Structures are given as C-alpha cells and as structure tokens.
Amino acid sequence: MKRLLLENLATKTMAILLAVLTWVYLFTQGNDTKQIKVEFQPPPLDRQVFASLVYKDGSGRVLEPGSTDLEVKLSGPRGDVRSYSQVTCKFPLDLKHLNAPQGLISISLEPAYFGLPGAIQVQPLPSKQITLEYVKYLDREIDLDAPRAEGEPREGSRVESLHVLPTRIRAKVPADLSLRPGEKAAVRRVPVAGRFENFTLERWELEPGSRILSETPFRVEIRIVPVPATRRLQLDLHLTAKEENKARVKLDTKTVTAELQGPQALIQGAPESAFAAYVVVTDADVATPGPKNINLPALGCHVLDPQYLGQVTVVLMPDVTAENRQVKITVLAK
Predict the structure, then answer these.
(1) Does pLDDT of 6 surpass 70?
(2) Cα end-to-end distance, the chain, whole Å
(3) Among 2, 135, 271, 291, which residue's CB has the most CB atoms within a 10 Å radius?
(4) What φ, ψ does residue 259 adopt, rounded to 5°?
(5) Cβ contacts of residue 326 below 8 Å, gap of 6+?
(6) Are residues 233 and 222 in the same domain?
(7) How far is CA 69 from the centre of its chain?
C-alpha cells in the first residue's frame, strides 16, 4: 500500500499544483460582474449662498450626501471586481452653470468619478444621469412680525408688551420663497414662564424652521407688569348738555356699573365720590319729545380726586346687564 502511494509522487504533485494554478488563473483573470453600493459625495457648496441643493437619480429618488442609495454594476477582471464591496462617487461642479437664482442641471456620472481602475467598467443604476435642483439666497430687506409669548409669567403678573427692535432687517431669502406685500417674517416665541420683571433678549432669532437667514441682529424687549386689582361699583349718572336742553331731559337711567383697575391699595380705598359718570345729550337727542335711548359712546367718566389720576383706570360696564346697554332718557316738551 505504501509503495502504491509513493509511485508517481512527482507526477501527482505536479497535477495538484497545476490544478491550483488553473483555479487561481480562472479566479483572477476571468471576467465577472458585481452590483455594489456607492457612497454619494457631491462637492461642497457654500450654504450661505445656496438655500437648497437636491440631487436625484434617474428614477427621481433623492440622493443625500453621504448616503449609499446609489448603486453601480462593475464589469471586469474577476479578481479586481470582487475586491470591491463599496465605492465612492465624487464629481466636480462648474459654478458658472449655477448662475441663475434657481434652476436644474443634469450631471453625467463618468467612470473616473468612482476612482476605479480603467480595466473596470462602471454602469450607474438606474441611470448615469443625475440632476441637481438648486435654489440660491437673495439679499432682501424684510419686516419682522411681533413675537408671541410662550408660557405664563409668575402669578399676579402679565405680559404687557413684546417689541422687536429693529422691526426691519437685512436677510437672505430663498429665491423660491415669495413674500407677499406686507407679509412679515415670524420671530421665535419668547419664553416668559415664571418671569415677573422686564427683560431683553439680545440677538434673538427667527422662528425655528424658517428658511430665511437673518443678517441684521435684532432684540426683543419684554415688559411684564403686575396684574391690576379690580373692583366694581355703582356710580351716579350725570347729564352733560347745553343749558337750554338740561331742563327738557330727565335721566331714566340713574346709575351705571363701573370697574376700577389699578394698584390694590388705591382700588380698595377708592370712594364712589371720587368718580363721576356722565352721559352727553346733543341737540339731535332732544329734537322730539318722548323716551329716548342714548347709545353708549356718549358715556364717559371723570376722575374727581387727583390721587387717582393716572393711577386708576375706570371702565364703564354698560353690558353687565341687558338693561344697561343703553342709557334711557325722557325728553320733555318745550
């Protein structure tokens, strides 16, 4: 048995060696095809110039930078083809083709863009043509909308005003964004939760998600004031008219409800005698005798005590009850 194994050993060894060499030759020198993914790497473009850059393949699918959604089919020597599991696509862009404010250009993917040896043929899938849809920024002057508060100030306080300064700024506006006449850019909401004092936010921002880029710094000034105390009382109603008309008018509505608004100490201690409600009667109101209803714009109030001037606001409440919506008078005959 041993003798049979040793006979023609050299021949058998040579045959095995030739088989290995043949397999290696066929594996490395034969042709093959392979479909692999491509990392898409478009050239960097200044995002201060371009508001939008959208690449799409031949089927209309969006290609994001760094994605591997693009695929190619490689053809060539088997060993070379099989050595690749992924390649990168890099290509140049001539900026003179992007002169318009917005547009669409086609880009033909050349084999050289994939960084592969010349012996390997590249077939991009589904098409060798990709498109770039671009939008540039345009320099504009825009008006800023009044900001809104977010949250609630401390109990007992209220937001009196929010002002943005300046109200008009320079900005970069995408060429495809059309601002109607009078339309203003939205400003990010102002957090006021728990605040009770006035404050200012420097270098504030436009609404998150806005496609507009601010180029002029702006600030928001917030005024927070105490919620005024209120108190309702009944005031005697007085007549204001020409002397010759006063004798012909009888006030059927004797009192009117008023609401005082102001500091707690002043409101609680204010007597009714410090305020005088009045109704204005004109010549037209007394033109004919009989009962009349005087519309409420003719209603007003005098602050008689100087300590309440500028400190207490008086709001007449003609709509507290249905009967109080108009002042009733009777015009007597001459």
Answers:
(1) no
(2) 155
(3) 135
(4) -115, 125
(5) 293, 294, 295, 296, 318
(6) no
(7) 31
3-state helix, strand, coil in the chain (%, to 5): 20, 45, 35
Q: What is the CATH number of the domain that holds 88?
A: 2.170.120.30
Written as six digits, the tokens of 6 are 């040793």
Strands 149-150 and 62-63: what pairing?
unpaired
Domain boundary among 183, 201, 226: 226
Is residue 156 very low, low, confident or very high in pLDDT (cuts 50, 70, 90)?
Answer: confident
d(CA 203, CA 4) in angstroms, rounded, equals 95
Res. 215 pLDDT band, cuts 50 70 90? very high
Q: pLDDT tens, 109-133? A: 998 999 999 889 988 877 889 999 9
Largest CA distance in the chain: 157
Q: How far is CA 214 from CA 122, 143, 158, 307, in A?
A: 45, 11, 30, 48
